[in-house]
Amino acid sequence: MAERSTGFLRRAAARPAVVGGLATVVVAAVATSVVGYRGLTSEVRLDVDGRSTEVVASGDTVADVLRDEGITLGPHDVVAPGLDSRVEDGSHVTVRTGREVRLTVDGQESVHWTTETDVSAALKSLGTPYGRAALSMSRSSSIPRDGVSLSVVTPKRLMVRLAGAEPTKEVLTALTPREALAQLGVEVDEHDRTVPGLDEPLADGDRFAFTDIDVAYERVRREAVPFATVEEPDDSTYVGDTSVVTPGRDGVRSVRYEVTTKNGVEVKRSVVGQKVLSEPVDEVVSVGTQTLDYGVWDRLAQCESGGNWAINTGNGYYGGLQFNLSTWQHWGGTGLPSNASRETQIAIATKLRDAAGGYGAWPGCAAKLGLPR
Protein backbone atom coordinates (compact mmCIF):
# COMPACT_ATOMS: atom_id res chain seq x y z
CA MET A 1 0.00 0.00 0.00
CA ALA A 2 2.84 2.34 0.97
CA GLU A 3 4.74 1.42 -2.22
CA ARG A 4 1.91 2.10 -4.45
CA SER A 5 1.77 5.33 -2.96
CA THR A 6 5.54 6.00 -3.56
CA GLY A 7 5.32 4.91 -7.15
CA PHE A 8 2.39 7.19 -7.67
CA LEU A 9 4.28 10.09 -6.31
CA ARG A 10 7.14 9.36 -8.61
CA ARG A 11 4.90 9.26 -11.60
CA ALA A 12 3.26 12.45 -10.53
CA ALA A 13 6.57 14.13 -10.08
CA ALA A 14 7.68 12.89 -13.45
CA ARG A 15 4.74 14.78 -15.09
CA PRO A 16 4.70 18.22 -13.35
CA ALA A 17 3.43 20.12 -16.36
CA VAL A 18 0.32 17.97 -16.60
CA VAL A 19 -0.62 18.34 -12.93
CA GLY A 20 -0.05 22.08 -12.88
CA GLY A 21 -2.22 22.53 -15.91
CA LEU A 22 -5.07 20.56 -14.35
CA ALA A 23 -5.03 22.75 -11.19
CA THR A 24 -5.26 25.89 -13.26
CA VAL A 25 -8.29 24.56 -15.06
CA VAL A 26 -10.07 23.68 -11.76
CA VAL A 27 -9.46 27.12 -10.20
CA ALA A 28 -10.70 28.85 -13.29
CA ALA A 29 -13.86 26.76 -13.30
CA VAL A 30 -14.64 27.57 -9.66
CA ALA A 31 -14.05 31.25 -10.19
CA THR A 32 -16.34 31.24 -13.19
CA SER A 33 -19.04 29.47 -11.15
CA VAL A 34 -18.87 32.02 -8.28
CA VAL A 35 -19.08 34.93 -10.63
CA GLY A 36 -22.06 33.37 -12.31
CA TYR A 37 -23.86 32.81 -8.95
CA ARG A 38 -23.25 36.34 -7.81
CA GLY A 39 -24.69 37.55 -11.02
CA LEU A 40 -27.94 35.70 -10.30
CA THR A 41 -28.46 36.96 -6.66
CA SER A 42 -28.72 40.26 -4.73
CA GLU A 43 -28.05 41.20 -1.09
CA VAL A 44 -31.15 42.96 0.24
CA ARG A 45 -31.88 44.51 3.68
CA LEU A 46 -35.28 43.25 4.86
CA ASP A 47 -37.07 45.12 7.69
CA VAL A 48 -40.09 43.32 9.19
CA ASP A 49 -41.88 45.29 11.91
CA GLY A 50 -38.65 47.06 12.87
CA ARG A 51 -36.38 43.97 12.85
CA SER A 52 -33.80 44.33 10.09
CA THR A 53 -31.77 41.48 8.51
CA GLU A 54 -29.55 41.01 5.44
CA VAL A 55 -30.98 38.41 3.03
CA VAL A 56 -29.79 37.01 -0.29
CA ALA A 57 -32.44 37.38 -2.96
CA SER A 58 -32.43 35.02 -5.90
CA GLY A 59 -35.30 36.76 -7.68
CA ASP A 60 -35.67 40.16 -9.27
CA THR A 61 -38.65 41.65 -7.39
CA VAL A 62 -39.85 42.42 -3.88
CA ALA A 63 -42.40 39.61 -4.27
CA ASP A 64 -39.51 37.19 -4.94
CA VAL A 65 -37.69 38.34 -1.78
CA LEU A 66 -40.79 37.80 0.38
CA ARG A 67 -41.45 34.40 -1.20
CA ASP A 68 -37.86 33.30 -0.54
CA GLU A 69 -38.22 34.37 3.12
CA GLY A 70 -41.56 32.62 3.56
CA ILE A 71 -43.45 35.86 4.19
CA THR A 72 -47.10 35.92 3.12
CA LEU A 73 -48.84 39.29 3.26
CA GLY A 74 -52.27 39.60 4.86
CA PRO A 75 -55.02 41.99 3.71
CA HIS A 76 -53.96 44.63 6.26
CA ASP A 77 -50.18 44.28 5.82
CA VAL A 78 -48.08 46.93 4.05
CA VAL A 79 -44.84 46.49 2.02
CA ALA A 80 -42.57 49.15 0.52
CA PRO A 81 -41.57 49.34 -2.19
CA GLY A 82 -44.41 47.56 -3.99
CA LEU A 83 -44.42 43.85 -4.72
CA ASP A 84 -43.55 44.36 -8.41
CA SER A 85 -40.63 46.67 -7.68
CA ARG A 86 -37.21 45.32 -8.76
CA VAL A 87 -34.45 44.68 -6.25
CA GLU A 88 -30.69 44.80 -6.54
CA ASP A 89 -27.69 44.80 -4.26
CA GLY A 90 -28.30 47.24 -1.40
CA SER A 91 -32.09 47.44 -1.83
CA HIS A 92 -34.25 47.97 1.29
CA VAL A 93 -37.59 46.19 1.68
CA THR A 94 -39.89 47.16 4.56
CA VAL A 95 -42.82 45.06 5.76
CA ARG A 96 -45.36 46.20 8.34
CA THR A 97 -47.95 43.67 9.49
CA GLY A 98 -51.49 44.82 10.22
CA ARG A 99 -52.66 44.66 13.84
CA GLU A 100 -56.29 44.70 14.96
CA VAL A 101 -57.24 47.35 17.52
CA ARG A 102 -60.54 46.56 19.24
CA LEU A 103 -61.42 49.99 20.56
CA THR A 104 -64.07 50.89 23.16
CA VAL A 105 -64.54 54.65 23.61
CA ASP A 106 -66.95 55.65 26.39
CA GLY A 107 -68.72 52.33 25.96
CA GLN A 108 -68.93 52.51 22.14
CA GLU A 109 -67.11 49.63 20.40
CA SER A 110 -65.31 49.72 17.05
CA VAL A 111 -62.58 47.75 15.24
CA HIS A 112 -59.59 49.31 13.47
CA TRP A 113 -56.42 48.08 11.78
CA THR A 114 -52.98 49.63 12.13
CA THR A 115 -49.40 48.82 11.20
CA GLU A 116 -48.08 50.69 14.24
CA THR A 117 -46.54 48.60 17.00
CA ASP A 118 -47.40 50.61 20.12
CA VAL A 119 -50.62 52.08 21.52
CA SER A 120 -49.65 55.74 21.27
CA ALA A 121 -48.62 55.51 17.61
CA ALA A 122 -51.69 53.43 16.78
CA LEU A 123 -54.07 56.04 18.21
CA LYS A 124 -52.28 58.79 16.30
CA SER A 125 -52.54 56.77 13.09
CA LEU A 126 -56.29 56.50 13.66
CA GLY A 127 -56.49 60.28 13.91
CA THR A 128 -57.73 60.19 17.52
CA PRO A 129 -54.79 60.44 19.96
CA TYR A 130 -57.10 60.96 23.00
CA GLY A 131 -54.39 62.99 24.68
CA ARG A 132 -56.28 63.65 27.96
CA ALA A 133 -58.26 60.43 28.01
CA ALA A 134 -57.79 57.54 30.42
CA LEU A 135 -56.62 54.32 28.72
CA SER A 136 -56.88 50.75 29.92
CA MET A 137 -53.15 50.24 29.22
CA SER A 138 -50.02 52.35 28.96
CA ARG A 139 -49.58 54.41 25.81
CA SER A 140 -46.13 52.85 25.42
CA SER A 141 -47.51 49.30 25.48
CA SER A 142 -46.63 47.13 22.48
CA ILE A 143 -49.36 45.80 20.22
CA PRO A 144 -48.87 42.07 19.49
CA ARG A 145 -49.53 40.67 16.03
CA ASP A 146 -52.85 39.20 17.15
CA GLY A 147 -54.02 42.71 18.10
CA VAL A 148 -55.18 44.37 21.29
CA SER A 149 -58.38 45.38 23.10
CA LEU A 150 -58.21 48.97 24.33
CA SER A 151 -60.71 50.93 26.42
CA VAL A 152 -60.73 54.73 26.33
CA VAL A 153 -62.62 57.06 28.66
CA THR A 154 -62.67 60.63 27.42
CA PRO A 155 -62.61 63.64 29.78
CA LYS A 156 -66.04 65.09 30.55
CA ARG A 157 -67.05 68.50 31.86
CA LEU A 158 -69.45 67.83 34.72
CA MET A 159 -71.39 69.91 37.25
CA VAL A 160 -71.10 68.07 40.56
CA ARG A 161 -72.99 68.68 43.82
CA LEU A 162 -71.46 66.83 46.78
CA ALA A 163 -73.34 66.26 50.04
CA GLY A 164 -75.50 69.38 49.77
CA ALA A 165 -72.60 71.75 49.01
CA GLU A 166 -72.68 74.29 46.20
CA PRO A 167 -72.22 72.70 42.73
CA THR A 168 -68.69 72.73 41.29
CA LYS A 169 -67.37 72.28 37.76
CA GLU A 170 -65.15 69.22 37.31
CA VAL A 171 -63.37 67.65 34.33
CA LEU A 172 -63.20 63.89 34.89
CA THR A 173 -62.44 60.77 32.85
CA ALA A 174 -65.42 58.86 34.22
CA LEU A 175 -68.21 56.85 32.66
CA THR A 176 -70.54 56.84 35.69
CA PRO A 177 -71.14 58.80 38.91
CA ARG A 178 -69.46 55.93 40.80
CA GLU A 179 -66.24 56.40 38.79
CA ALA A 180 -66.47 60.19 39.08
CA LEU A 181 -66.78 60.01 42.88
CA ALA A 182 -63.79 57.66 43.07
CA GLN A 183 -61.70 60.17 41.10
CA LEU A 184 -62.83 62.92 43.49
CA GLY A 185 -61.79 60.81 46.48
CA VAL A 186 -65.34 60.37 47.78
CA GLU A 187 -66.02 57.05 49.49
CA VAL A 188 -69.43 55.57 48.68
CA ASP A 189 -71.32 52.97 50.70
CA GLU A 190 -74.58 51.11 50.21
CA HIS A 191 -76.64 53.86 51.88
CA ASP A 192 -75.44 56.76 49.72
CA ARG A 193 -77.45 57.98 46.75
CA THR A 194 -76.74 59.81 43.50
CA VAL A 195 -78.93 61.37 40.83
CA PRO A 196 -78.60 59.91 38.27
CA GLY A 197 -77.86 56.48 39.74
CA LEU A 198 -74.34 55.39 40.65
CA ASP A 199 -73.91 53.23 37.56
CA GLU A 200 -75.86 55.32 35.06
CA PRO A 201 -73.81 56.64 32.07
CA LEU A 202 -72.43 60.17 32.10
CA ALA A 203 -71.91 62.38 29.06
CA ASP A 204 -70.03 65.63 28.58
CA GLY A 205 -71.99 68.52 30.15
CA ASP A 206 -74.03 66.34 32.53
CA ARG A 207 -74.93 67.17 36.13
CA PHE A 208 -75.05 64.78 39.04
CA ALA A 209 -75.65 65.09 42.77
CA PHE A 210 -74.29 62.94 45.59
CA THR A 211 -76.20 62.56 48.86
CA ASP A 212 -74.17 61.29 51.81
CA ILE A 213 -76.44 59.06 53.89
CA ASP A 214 -75.01 57.56 57.07
CA VAL A 215 -76.61 55.01 59.37
CA ALA A 216 -75.11 54.76 62.85
CA TYR A 217 -76.11 53.27 66.19
CA GLU A 218 -76.32 55.13 69.49
CA ARG A 219 -76.82 53.76 73.00
CA VAL A 220 -78.35 55.81 75.82
CA ARG A 221 -77.83 54.04 79.14
CA ARG A 222 -80.44 55.99 81.12
CA GLU A 223 -83.26 57.77 79.32
CA ALA A 224 -86.49 59.08 80.80
CA VAL A 225 -89.71 57.37 79.76
CA PRO A 226 -92.44 60.07 79.94
CA PHE A 227 -95.47 59.24 82.02
CA ALA A 228 -98.94 59.22 80.48
CA THR A 229 -101.88 61.32 81.69
CA VAL A 230 -105.14 59.57 82.47
CA GLU A 231 -108.29 61.71 82.79
CA GLU A 232 -111.06 60.70 85.18
CA PRO A 233 -114.48 62.40 84.77
CA ASP A 234 -115.83 64.18 87.88
CA ASP A 235 -119.48 65.24 87.84
CA SER A 236 -119.07 67.17 91.07
CA THR A 237 -117.04 69.89 89.35
CA TYR A 238 -117.77 72.03 86.36
CA VAL A 239 -116.54 71.61 82.80
CA GLY A 240 -113.09 73.16 82.54
CA ASP A 241 -112.15 72.37 86.13
CA THR A 242 -109.23 69.95 86.50
CA SER A 243 -107.20 68.71 89.42
CA VAL A 244 -104.32 66.24 89.77
CA VAL A 245 -105.38 63.17 91.73
CA THR A 246 -102.14 61.19 91.34
CA PRO A 247 -98.90 62.88 90.26
CA GLY A 248 -97.11 61.23 87.34
CA ARG A 249 -93.53 59.98 87.46
CA ASP A 250 -91.20 59.31 84.54
CA GLY A 251 -89.72 55.86 84.09
CA VAL A 252 -86.15 55.02 83.06
CA ARG A 253 -84.89 52.82 80.23
CA SER A 254 -81.67 51.82 78.51
CA VAL A 255 -82.19 52.23 74.77
CA ARG A 256 -80.32 51.65 71.48
CA TYR A 257 -81.15 53.88 68.50
CA GLU A 258 -80.55 53.58 64.78
CA VAL A 259 -79.73 57.12 63.65
CA THR A 260 -79.91 58.15 59.98
CA THR A 261 -78.24 61.36 58.81
CA LYS A 262 -78.49 63.01 55.41
CA ASN A 263 -75.53 65.21 54.49
CA GLY A 264 -74.70 65.41 58.20
CA VAL A 265 -78.22 66.31 59.38
CA GLU A 266 -80.23 63.79 61.41
CA VAL A 267 -83.41 62.83 59.57
CA LYS A 268 -84.52 59.69 61.37
CA ARG A 269 -84.10 58.03 64.77
CA SER A 270 -85.57 54.60 65.45
CA VAL A 271 -85.50 52.41 68.56
CA VAL A 272 -83.92 49.06 67.72
CA GLY A 273 -83.61 47.76 71.27
CA GLN A 274 -84.47 48.78 74.84
CA LYS A 275 -84.59 47.61 78.43
CA VAL A 276 -86.96 49.29 80.91
CA LEU A 277 -85.18 49.94 84.20
CA SER A 278 -88.21 51.43 85.98
CA GLU A 279 -91.80 51.76 84.77
CA PRO A 280 -93.41 55.22 84.51
CA VAL A 281 -96.35 56.07 86.79
CA ASP A 282 -99.43 57.56 85.10
CA GLU A 283 -100.67 60.98 86.13
CA VAL A 284 -104.36 60.85 87.07
CA VAL A 285 -106.33 64.05 86.49
CA SER A 286 -109.90 64.74 87.59
CA VAL A 287 -111.88 66.51 84.87
CA GLY A 288 -115.13 68.30 85.68
CA THR A 289 -118.21 67.33 83.71
CA GLN A 290 -120.93 69.51 85.28
CA THR A 291 -122.15 72.08 82.76
CA LEU A 292 -122.47 75.76 83.57
CA ASP A 293 -125.53 77.91 82.95
CA TYR A 294 -123.86 80.29 80.53
CA GLY A 295 -127.12 82.10 79.85
CA VAL A 296 -127.32 83.55 83.38
CA TRP A 297 -123.70 84.65 83.31
CA ASP A 298 -124.01 86.22 79.89
CA ARG A 299 -126.97 88.28 81.12
CA LEU A 300 -125.06 89.24 84.27
CA ALA A 301 -121.98 90.25 82.20
CA GLN A 302 -124.21 92.31 79.93
CA CYS A 303 -125.42 94.18 82.99
CA GLU A 304 -121.97 94.54 84.65
CA SER A 305 -119.76 95.35 81.65
CA GLY A 306 -121.91 95.59 78.58
CA GLY A 307 -120.94 92.01 77.74
CA ASN A 308 -117.26 92.89 77.24
CA TRP A 309 -115.31 89.99 78.75
CA ALA A 310 -111.94 91.71 78.13
CA ILE A 311 -112.79 95.11 79.63
CA ASN A 312 -110.22 96.86 81.84
CA THR A 313 -111.26 100.42 82.68
CA GLY A 314 -108.59 100.97 85.33
CA ASN A 315 -111.12 101.25 88.17
CA GLY A 316 -109.86 98.09 89.89
CA TYR A 317 -112.51 95.78 88.39
CA TYR A 318 -111.82 93.54 85.44
CA GLY A 319 -113.54 91.39 82.85
CA GLY A 320 -117.12 90.69 81.95
CA LEU A 321 -118.16 90.00 85.56
CA GLN A 322 -116.07 92.81 87.05
CA PHE A 323 -113.85 90.86 89.48
CA ASN A 324 -111.45 92.65 91.75
CA LEU A 325 -108.03 90.97 91.97
CA SER A 326 -108.34 89.69 95.53
CA THR A 327 -111.62 87.87 94.83
CA TRP A 328 -110.33 86.54 91.53
CA GLN A 329 -107.17 85.16 93.06
CA HIS A 330 -108.97 83.75 96.11
CA TRP A 331 -111.09 81.52 93.89
CA GLY A 332 -108.21 80.25 91.82
CA GLY A 333 -107.84 82.84 89.10
CA THR A 334 -104.40 83.78 87.75
CA GLY A 335 -103.29 86.92 85.97
CA LEU A 336 -105.88 89.57 85.22
CA PRO A 337 -109.53 88.53 84.84
CA SER A 338 -109.78 90.64 81.71
CA ASN A 339 -107.08 88.49 80.09
CA ALA A 340 -108.85 85.22 80.92
CA SER A 341 -111.34 83.53 78.61
CA ARG A 342 -115.09 83.89 79.02
CA GLU A 343 -115.30 80.27 80.16
CA THR A 344 -112.60 80.73 82.81
CA GLN A 345 -114.29 83.84 84.18
CA ILE A 346 -117.62 81.98 84.39
CA ALA A 347 -115.94 79.01 86.13
CA ILE A 348 -114.44 81.29 88.84
CA ALA A 349 -117.73 83.13 89.22
CA THR A 350 -119.58 79.82 89.62
CA LYS A 351 -117.30 78.83 92.51
CA LEU A 352 -117.97 82.18 94.19
CA ARG A 353 -121.74 81.88 93.66
CA ASP A 354 -121.87 78.30 94.99
CA ALA A 355 -119.86 79.22 98.08
CA ALA A 356 -122.06 82.27 98.78
CA GLY A 357 -125.32 80.50 97.98
CA GLY A 358 -126.35 83.04 95.36
CA TYR A 359 -125.36 86.05 93.25
CA GLY A 360 -124.85 88.44 96.16
CA ALA A 361 -121.36 89.36 94.89
CA TRP A 362 -123.17 91.28 92.15
CA PRO A 363 -125.94 92.92 94.18
CA GLY A 364 -127.11 95.62 91.79
CA CYS A 365 -127.32 93.50 88.66
CA ALA A 366 -128.60 90.46 90.58
CA ALA A 367 -131.52 92.54 91.85
CA LYS A 368 -132.09 93.99 88.43
CA LEU A 369 -132.12 90.52 86.85
CA GLY A 370 -134.10 88.95 89.68
CA LEU A 371 -131.34 86.50 90.62
CA PRO A 372 -131.20 84.96 94.11
CA ARG A 373 -128.71 86.57 96.45
Structure description:
Belongs to the transglycosylase family. Rpf subfamily. The chain crosses the membrane at residues 12-37. It comes from Nocardioides flavescens. Pfam families: DUF348, G5, Transglycosylas. Keywords: Hydrolase, Membrane, Signal, Transmembrane, Transmembrane helix. The strands form five sheets. The protein has a four-stranded mixed sheet with strand order 2-1-4-3. The model is unreliable at 1-39 (pLDDT under 50). By secondary structure, the chain is of the alpha+beta class. The protein is built from nine helices and 18 strands. It has helices spanning 2-14, 16-40, 62-68, 119-125, 177-183, 294-305, 325-330, 342-356, 363-369; strands at residues 42-48, 51-57, 78-80, 92-96, 99-105, 108-114, 134-135, 148-153, 156-162, 168-172, 193-195, 207-211, 213-225, 229-238, 242-246, 251-262, 265-278, 283-290. The radius of gyration is 56 Å and the shape is rod-shaped. A hairpin with a 2-residue loop joins β5 (99-105) and β6. The chain folds into five domains: 42-96, Ubiquitin-like (UB roll) (Roll), CATH 3.10.20; 99-153, Roll (Ubiquitin-like (UB roll)); 156-211, Ubiquitin-like (UB roll); 215-287, Resuscitation-promoting factor rpfb fold, CATH 2.20.230.10; 292-369, Orthogonal Bundle (Lysozyme).
